[in-house]
Design goal:
CATH class of the domain at 557-702: Alpha Beta
CATH architecture of the domain at 557-702: 2-Layer Sandwich
Distance between the termini: 47 Å
Strand content: 15-25%
Helix content: 40-55%
Largest sheet: 6 strands, antiparallel
Length: about 725
């Protein structure tokens, strides 16, 4: 199938469009969505504030009425009955919402009654012994009881009973007509209004009086408000208006009522929709402008390049007479000038091609024979084509005339000859780079070599033979051995004594060595904490040494990120509770399983959450989120701590790095270990932070890791 040729102009144009229009559209749409969400959230907050404000107003009226009770109690001690009536009438006159105040004996009979003539013109002394609210007050020995709302001449009233002792009950009949009128007159735009419901879901105040005292539990926000203990909001369908609405509710606890404010969604979010339309028009305009600019730039870029291509094709045919004569007044003009100079040079070099080849060959040989490593080139049968002096010395080849001889026939070490024979013959079957380590050590001398073999091919892909680079790695092996000896020494000389120290400290704290006074106990606790920190430092240093030396292998298996997170949070629960930290883990509805080393990933999570807990102040918050991407999982631990200065952002994952001025302890190795673990899983770890705003540590791990594409640490 013939390859389809795509003109350079089209490529330039496509790249410019992708680079300009792509980000513009993505950022624009993202900004639109963010602004839309912000506007809609602010509208819901407005509804919530209105509902909460009216609920507070009802509670305030109730508190005013309740504040009159101590005063009424004092009035009862006055022996002058005429003065008592005058004072009670004064209370009613000062609070227009109180219809009447009655004093009831233990049987519920009214003994004294003062009423508001504007509300109740024909008041009589009554017996309330059968009143359900009065009976509830007496049977349950309550200090206060409030009746359900009832209506007289379409005016709302509530009976409020207060037990003031000595078998005397104060009954206040309270009118809510004024509050009802305020609620009904409350408007939000053209379609927004407020109404009130009771504990049964009945509407008790509404601009449409036909709905009063009728249950409307089929409306979802009413069902939510009936069970709510705090302010809330939602979006729902109202079957009464047959419209999608947004609304908010606020409970009035003493009355078991709820205030609901609702508005048609189309009107409430009108400004959001308008902003969205305008933004889309701006994006379309910007896209069209970008396309026009891309066309102009593409033409200005491709015209001189096409001219260069045309002249270059003539030069390929050894026609050096052509030149490019285009002026662009930019860097391409420099390229054209350089190209014309190059054409002149090519014409001159073409006349001395043989001398150039000889000179290049001499340079190549000089480079090869100057390299410190040994280099041997053979054909596929092992016959030597080229070998520098270093290779001869390393392999102990004494014969000076070695070209054309089989390599392994010249080697004294059988193991060395076997390796070269195996590697070179293997290229008859496969074409890969092969590395081998060869141990030629004796009881008195350590010698290690590393060979790297790859095929030699021409530009056209023709195989000429095999080149092998021989490098003496004896010093590296000696250093590795010294590292192992050092780690072994650390393990026995530091960790074992420290374990003994901590054991004896445990004996002392448990009183096995005798009772300790308070000062001694405090000293032992300080020593225990110091030894624990030193033990942690020793373990971190040992782990880091293993990571850096590549002696820790990954044990891949099914790893459940969410389960590991819960396990770490449960382990750190005492510190979380002690500092009263708000630990937030948003609900995750997707599986968080990947192929990784579960123990090492748990260590990363434990380090990050532990750091966040360490640097988050009391009553702060820590948020852990897991994001599902098509090919990876992204993990974030975000805190509300002090934040990290910009100077430390790039080096926070280096060894022994700690932020100056933060006295929180630690070894400075935890984040370094996290970096090694994540990178060994082909992932990436980074931090985002602002001073005084907290930090967010992020890392991602690919989903489909296998043992062949991970790196041992």
């Amino acid at each position: 199938m013939k390859d389809i040729k795509i003109p350079l102009f089209i490529k330039f144009f496509a790249v410019l469009i992708i680079l300009s229009v792509g980000p513009l559209v993505v950022v624009g749409i993202r900004t639109i969505n963010i602004n839309k969400d912000a506007l809609q959230t602010s509208m819901l907050e407005l509804h919530t504030q209105l509902a909460g404000s009216f609920a507070e107003k009802v509670n305030y009226r109730l508190s005013i009425i309740q504040n009159e009770i101590p005063y009424v109690t004092q009035i009862l001690a006055v022996n002058d009955y005429q003065l008592r009536d005058v004072i009670l009438k004064t209370i009613i006159d000062s609070n227009k919402s109180i219809s009447s105040i009655s004093l009831l004996d233990k049987t519920g009979a009214e003994k004294v009654k003062v009423f508001n003539l504007l509300i109740d013109k024909d008041a009589k002394l009554l017996s309330l012994k059968d009143d359900e609210t009065f009976k509830l007050l007496k049977e349950q020995k309550l200090a206060k009881a409030i009746s359900a709302i009832y209506f007289i001449d379409n005016k709302p009233f509530v009976n409020m009973y207060f037990d003031i002792g000595k078998n005397i009950t104060v009954l206040m009949i309270v009118s809510f007509e004024e509050l009802w009128n305020e609620l009904i007159e409350l408007r939000l735009g053209k379609t927004g209004y407020a109404f009130l419901i009771n504990a049964k879901g009945q509407i008790i105040a509404h601009k449409d009086k036909e709905l009063v005292l009728k249950p409307q539990t089929s409306i979802s926000i009413i069902s939510q408000a009936m069970n709510a203990v705090s302010i809330g909001s939602s979006e729902y369908y109202n079957p009464l208006t047959k419209q999608v609405m947004i609304g908010a509710y606020a409970p009035i606890k003493d009355f078991k009522w709820s205030v609901i404010v609702e508005q048609q969604k189309n009107e409430a979010y009108y400004s959001s929709y308008r902003m969205q339309r305008q933004a889309f028009l701006m994006i379309i305009g910007s896209v069209l402008l970008s396309i026009l600019i891309a066309i102009v730039i593409s033409r200005s870029m491709t015209k001189p390049i096409l001219a260069l291509t045309k002249v270059a094709s003539r030069i390929a045919k050894q026609d050096f007479s052509q030149r490019v004569n285009i002026k662009t007044n930019d860097e391409i003009n420099d390229l054209i000038s350089t190209f014309n100079v190059m054409t002149d040079e090519l014409k001159r070099y073409d006349e001395m091609q043989v001398d150039k080849i000889v000179a290049e060959k001499t340079k190549t040989e000089a480079v090869i024979f100057s390299i410190a490593d040994g280099i041997i080139m053979t054909d596929f049968e092992g016959k030597i084509l080229l070998a520098n002096k270093q290779a001869r010395n390393m392999l102990s080849i004494e014969d000076q005339n070695i070209e054309g001889k089989v390599l392994w026939s010249l080697l004294k070490e059988e193991s060395l000859a076997g390796v070269f024979s195996e590697v070179i013959k293997k290229y008859e079957e496969e074409d890969t780079i092969i590395s081998k380590e060869i141990d030629l050590s004796t009881s008195n001398l350590m010698r290690f070599f590393k060979t790297t073999t790859k095929p030699v091919t021409t530009v056209k892909g023709e195989q000429l033979g095999v080149v092998t680079v021989v490098r003496d790695i004896t010093l590296e092996k000696e250093i590795d051995r010294m590292k192992d000896d050092f780690m072994h020494s650390i393990t026995h000389d530091l960790r074992n004594p420290m374990t003994s120290i901590r054991g004896f400290l445990k004996f002392l704290s448990d009183g096995i060595g005798g009772p300790l006074n308070e000062q001694q106990k405090k000293m032992v606790e300080i020593m225990d904490r110091a030894s624990l920190r030193l033990m942690s430092l020793i373990n971190d240093i040992l782990d880091l040494a293993k990571l850096e030396s590549g002696r820790m292998s990954l044990q891949l298996g099914e790893t459940q990120l969410l389960d590991l997170t819960r396990r770490v949070v449960e382990l750190l629960q005492p510190q979380i509770q002690k500092k009263e930290i708000n630990m937030i883990i948003p609900e995750i509805t997707f599986p968080t399983v990947l192929n990784a080393d579960p123990q090492l990933i748990e260590r990363v999570i434990n380090n990050l959450v532990g750091n966040a807990l360490k640097f988050t102040p009391e009553k702060g918050s820590i948020t852990i989120t897991i994001t599902d991407h098509p090919d990876k999982f992204e993990y974030q631990v975000k805190d509300t701590g002090e934040g990290i200065p910009m100077d430390y952002i790039d080096k926070i994952f280096d060894k022994f790095q700690q932020v100056t001025g933060q006295k929180k302890g630690g070894t400075g190795l935890g984040l370094t270990i996290c970096r090694y673990i994540v990178e060994s899983h082909k992932g990436k770890i980074w931090v985002e932070s602002k001073l005084k705003e907290g930090s967010a540590f992020n890392f991602y791990i690919p989903k489909n890791l296998t043992s062949s594409n991970v790196t041992d640490i």
